[in-house]
Each structure stands twice: as structure tokens, then as C-alpha cells.
Amino acid sequence: MGSADRSGRAVEMGRGRRRKDRINIGPAVRVRRKELKLTLKDLADRSGLSVAFISQVERGKTAPSIISLLQISEALGVNVNYFVEATQEEKLIRRARDPEYIEVASPTTYIRLSNSFPEQKLEPFIFILAPGHVSTSANIGEGHLGEGFLYLLEGRISGEYRGASFSLSEGDSMHYQLTSSLMLNNPGQQEAKLLWVGSVVLFPAHD
After folding, report:
1. Secondary structure (DSSP) of 120-162
2. Which of the 8 DSSP states describes residue 88?
């Protein structure tokens, strides 16, 4: 999604690049399912999802939400990061030219900055919020012991934390506890881009 002052064509081109760079976990799901000698129906029964939906995930036609991905990983006896690691080699440095978009069913764009390793403690992301979008920290570690930190790179955001309202402009930051709910809103006419770092690992290393 591009900012309001960009042309429609530029916006569409930007979207195209993101879609191309996103991780497709479908092949990893299919490989693991076949390792367990499960049919699509077997996996559907175990996960509580439909056969059609799982088939679309495996063929890269749709992206599962975080909740659906958790259901699939549990049904296949692995954790979520199994699918991420299956698509990308472990490395220490992540280049700007090679972003990792975590494709989930959410209007928020998630760009992962870290690489998994044993006993990982922190998880950094770039979050891109569409204009007018409202989100809560349910997708970024809410309810966990630990801390969250966000730094606004572009745009403006407003929100609410522990009953208090706030607004952030470019260069502003916030350090908070993950045990309380954080609501974020992008009231502007362009995307809001922020750096988020949390002491909860959303995609823990696969044993």
C-alpha cells in the first residue's frame, strides 16, 4: 500500500512487489502432511478447518490467519515456525533487499526483521497500518509477560493503553508491558509504518 501522494499505479506496483516477496508456506504444509501420511480430509478433521481451505493454503492461493496457522501446525505436530524455517535458511543478517513478509489474513502488513535461533528472546517487526485501520495487540503478544517497544517510522498513529489515549508522530516511541491490551489506530490518509520489538517470540525456533 502506498501513501496518498503516490499514483495509483505506484501503489499497485508496490503491492505487487510485496506479494512476490511473501513467504508461501503451502509447500511446507503439504510436505509435512504427506510425511504423516494424512489426506486433506484427515488434516481438515484434525485442525477443524475445511478441506477446501487447506487445499488453497497448500497451493498458495490463500494465506491462513495466525489462528488458522496455529490450528494447522498443532494438527501436524509442529510449531508455527516450522513452516517459516522450511522456506528460508537460518542466517544472522537480513538484507533490506530481501524482506520477509509474514502472510496472514490481516490488513496489517507484517515484515519480520529477525531470524530464529535457539533460546531467542526478542522478536522485531515492521508493521504497516493502512489508513483508517484499527488494530489491537492481540496479534502482537497481548496477554504475555514481557515488554513491547514501538517506534514510529512514518505517518501518525493514535491509540489507547490502560484506559489512556495517546498519539504518536514520526520519531516518537512507546515502551509498554504486554500484559495489558494496546489498541492502535491510523487516522491519517497514508500508511503508518512502525518498528515493533517484543520480548515474546511470535515464531519460536523449531526444535
Report:
1. ---EEEEEEEPTT-EEEGGGTTTTSSSEEEEEEEES-EEEEET
2. S
Residue 130 CA to residue 132 CA, distance in Å, equals: 6
Specify the residue for cell string 509477560: 145
What integer is the mean pLDDT of 30-43?
Answer: 93
C-alpha to C-alpha distance for 167 and 141, rounded to whole angstroms: 21
Q: Domains of the chain (ranges plus CATH)?
A: 24-85 (1.10.260.40), 100-198 (2.60.120.10)
The closest alpha carbon to 28, from 84, 66, 104, belongs to: 84
Predicted confidence (pLDDT) per residue in 107-143, tens digit: 788 898 987 665 678 889 999 999 988 875 544 545 5
Global confidence as pTM: 0.55
Which CA distances in Å does 74 have to 80, 81, 83? Answer: 8, 12, 12
Instruction: Using alpha carbons, select from 107, 31, 118, 21 the residue that is nearest to residue 65.
Output: 107
115 neighbors 91 (Cβ within 8 angstroms): yes
| Cell representation of residue 44 | 481438515
Q: Can you point out the beta strands (E) in the chain?
A: 100-102, 109-112, 123-129, 134-136, 147-154, 157-161, 164-168, 173-177, 182-185, 192-198
Quick one: which of 141, 130, 124 has its CA closest to 107? 130
